[in-house]
Amino acid sequence: MASNSCKSKILSNVLSCLNYKTGKFIIAESKRVGTLYRVIQLSIIGYLVGYVFLSKKSYQAKEESIQSAVITKLKGVAVTNTAESGRMVWEPVDYVIPPQGDAVFFIVTNFIETPNQKLGNCAESPDVPDGHCKGDKDCAKGESVKTGHGFRTGRCLRDNGKSSGTCEIYSWLCHDMTKSNENVLEAENFTIFIKNFIRFPKFSFSKANVQDTADKYHLKKCHYDELLEPYCPIFRLGDIVYRTGHSFQDMVLRGGSIGILIKWKCDLDRDHSECKPRYNFTRIDINASRESTGFNFRHARYYKNESGEVYRTQFKVYGIRINIMVHGKAGKFCIIPTVINIGSGLACIGGGTWLCDWILLYLMKKREFYKDWKFENVKKYEDTKQIPEEQQLTDQSPEV
Amino acid sequence: MASNSCKSKILSNVLSCLNYKTGKFIIAESKRVGTLYRVIQLSIIGYLVGYVFLSKKSYQAKEESIQSAVITKLKGVAVTNTAESGRMVWEPVDYVIPPQGDAVFFIVTNFIETPNQKLGNCAESPDVPDGHCKGDKDCAKGESVKTGHGFRTGRCLRDNGKSSGTCEIYSWLCHDMTKSNENVLEAENFTIFIKNFIRFPKFSFSKANVQDTADKYHLKKCHYDELLEPYCPIFRLGDIVYRTGHSFQDMVLRGGSIGILIKWKCDLDRDHSECKPRYNFTRIDINASRESTGFNFRHARYYKNESGEVYRTQFKVYGIRINIMVHGKAGKFCIIPTVINIGSGLACIGGGTWLCDWILLYLMKKREFYKDWKFENVKKYEDTKQIPEEQQLTDQSPEV
Amino acid sequence: MASNSCKSKILSNVLSCLNYKTGKFIIAESKRVGTLYRVIQLSIIGYLVGYVFLSKKSYQAKEESIQSAVITKLKGVAVTNTAESGRMVWEPVDYVIPPQGDAVFFIVTNFIETPNQKLGNCAESPDVPDGHCKGDKDCAKGESVKTGHGFRTGRCLRDNGKSSGTCEIYSWLCHDMTKSNENVLEAENFTIFIKNFIRFPKFSFSKANVQDTADKYHLKKCHYDELLEPYCPIFRLGDIVYRTGHSFQDMVLRGGSIGILIKWKCDLDRDHSECKPRYNFTRIDINASRESTGFNFRHARYYKNESGEVYRTQFKVYGIRINIMVHGKAGKFCIIPTVINIGSGLACIGGGTWLCDWILLYLMKKREFYKDWKFENVKKYEDTKQIPEEQQLTDQSPEV
């Protein structure tokens, strides 16, 4: 008997758990507050659907850390006629540094050759402040000249009569002070073939900027053009510089650094063939004041003469440093961000009710009246407890 | 007296502020709606706990922009026997380009040597379309041959009788057209030692793929093996190519580009020793149609003879270009994403009640009846205002 | 007439849609639960405002995938006096590898020169395990010595009497076993000029670490100092090593790898001039046990003698490998994360009411009593249906 009552109690519990409990509402026929509430509601829903989902695609999981590999290959030849080594033909193997086709490389467009350098003694160049001297005591033997070219021998070289001069140094540069004229390569028509392989690890999706092999022959001939050939990965050096908005001649002479930005913006919910690269060209050695500093460096070739003595030919090369930067962004539908956006949107609507309640209960003329209806004071019914009593049989589970 | 009443008013305000106000509910004993609501509730909670937190670990702040430094060192020797320079021993210093141990490097596996190149005149190779000519007028002096090897001298070279030929050019390539046979290195046993240092800036956590020094001697001997030695950072070149699923012989001959992906997936809530790299090997110079294009480039060594004349030995090297790409993802508990996920989850449950209300009030048979109970119309009690009157003394703060 | 009633019905629908419906609440004068609820409310609001928005700036959209280009330029000279090639002056062109100013480069600080190497036969060095032999049969002709220096000629070289020796090999290293002493460069005062251009693609914001050209002359003279010159991009090699907390002498001798981390932490809601880089120096070739392994590699210069025979000078260079890693993080106000955080915060407050309800209805002494007031059982009014009847004329839209 007791067990029965117990069973029935459990049963009723379970059943009551399946009762649907929903909040009781009062209808405040205040059109102003009501309208306000609807406006809030609609604007949030509009924001969710229109901005968050349609425009920003926030229903997608995003991937921005891209894996990328770049291979480059240059073509084109130039000829120079230098006082030092006569007529010279420049092939990629000569003017691309390093030659192995990296993502960051340098194209020689102008150089100063100083052949057959040997170590010896000579005057430090006057441009180096630390090289100046008034007497031998300023040229302590063996000390290096700060940001200079060699080591002091202990002597101060002064043109007769002059009160100051420059220290004598032991240096490589001693046999070339005279002959150093520039030699410009005609680099405008060099072509750069860029091969870019990317991978989005999160979605394990990978692609290359060189489409399919069908148009292999086309690839040999085409040149990149923003409008006509946006996917041809072969670039004329002249075009690249032109697109950065700088003067080719200026860059060729003083050198410069150009960034080629490859952008992959892929919506992986769409067809993968729509995931295509965009190329962008900007000069990256420009200060705020847009004053360029150019780009150059020195490299040398070493030789030995019959007597085994080392000598070298040093090249001060000005040129264009290409820096290929790849940036990718992929999105694919994912439940989590979707729920997060919907959920927080709904919550904000809930916040809207708070605002409206507050207006209703604090700003409206009939606020006291509304309060009385919205809030039911339990306490003062304490004495009249017998009324609810009988309900206690049907014990209700709470709103969890 | 007035101040007293004022004080008491403030006090009652403060107290009433601590009253707990909770929504009044009606129990609609509709098992169907109730069940639906429970289902929604449980499914969302299940999604939160099971998918979001346990499976996706969305309680963690994620870091995907990794700082990485890679150092590589190759070992192994090969011997070749070329017509040009006889027996040659190839050490890393000879076959690794560049030699300084970068993350992107090239291993010579096959080369064509063209020694003692000097500048001179010869016929452009017939492969170059722009080099063809019918007469000298097609070979304007000084013009470069597009994607060719040199500069036109002004003469069109035709085998007697032939109507067309190729322009004569001034070029490096003039002394080697004949002898150019390939020489393959036995590169299968070369080993690559990869040292990878990573850092997650957000968590300022850093680690290296070379574990501790305890097994230093072991490090000298071990070879990477997916199953047996997954953490040994020494790789046989043969194994690497094998894992990409391509033929080693083919790659050795025509060259190719391989990406070694190092994946760091670290749960920083766990013990840091569990944060270990995974290695992955893929060939990255393959088009959609899986047709390889190979990889090669030219580099040269420059010499001078007694008379100071420059000549060079050019190597056209085929080989394997290794591109080590590091990708890392770390997660660590963070309160913000946790709150966001829980909050939006709860909000969605709230959305569930809306759905159920809507069903209850619009689709159920007894909808009108439920409506009457859910909604209490304030207006029609307006005349009977004296009832609430007395309540106004206990002024209630709103539900904020 | 019917149409009229229809019209009026529609109208009343529309109007009722603008009625403001707000939940009916009961006031449970339980100060404990009320207080608890207020605490939850305030703590969540505090967390939102204080932690999420003020401290973590979660109202911003974050960008962590940065595009970066680095150019480096070294200055300084050193002199060495080697037995092999006498007094030598080292300029950047000699000691920086590669010379073209990349983000990853190597500075020679110590080297072993082995000049005039020719191919020939000699004994494998005893350090190579695979080179040991007891008899000629252990030295199969033509086989390479694993991790060795050359190819077995077939002979086992043993000092007379000894039972074991090392195989004879055909190798480059045969003319230099003797003379190989180290030569240290005084590299402490070398300066590294680092030029870093960055770009945040999401906000298309770009900047360089070299401020404006106003202080161009200053740039020539300044040296980076954490406190005095935090934005001067010129670094003394000695300072860099010092900041890593390692001994310069040790690094100079055995070599090592240093990471220069450039951190861009930009709040793009602020003035852009406040987006400045921070420099950080850490040694990255250290194992957990902080035991260094040093860093060195070999490179060679190739020469030809009159008879056209190739020989080379090999340098085993120890030195400091600098790896410049750029990490950027930019934030800018965005509505979506703001809404998400606020929304989920509100939702959590809602969760708080659940908790309090649960306490109120299950733990409090007067729980049954509260239940009766919170929940209104519809069923038992089913018979008394005539009361609501008349309301059905004013048909209420649900709370959507």
From TrEMBL, chains A, B, C:
Reactions mediated catalytically: Ca(2+)(in) = Ca(2+)(out)
InterPro entries: P2X5_purnocptor, P2X_extracellular_dom_sf, P2X_purnocptor, P2X_receptor, P2X_RECEPTOR_CS
One Pfam family linked to the record: P2X_receptor
Annotated compartments: Cell membrane; Membrane
Residues that bind ATP: 73-75, 191, 296-298, 316
GO cellular component: plasma membrane; postsynapse
Keywords, ordered alphabetically: ATP-binding, Cell membrane, Disulfide bond, Glycoprotein, Ion channel, Ion transport, Ligand-gated ion channel, Membrane, Nucleotide-binding, Receptor, Transmembrane, Transmembrane helix, Transport
Glycan attachment sites: 189
Single GO term (MF): ATP binding
Membrane topology term: Multi-pass membrane protein
Transmembrane segments: 342-364
Functional description taken from the UniProt entry: Receptor for ATP that acts as a ligand-gated ion channel.
Quaternary structure annotation from Swiss-Prot or TrEMBL: Functional P2XRs are organized as homomeric and heteromeric trimers. Homotrimer. Forms heterotrimer with P2RX1.
Homology family: Belongs to the P2X receptor family.
Stated name of the protein: P2X purinoceptor
Record organism: Oncorhynchus tshawytscha
Gene that encodes it: LOC112265489
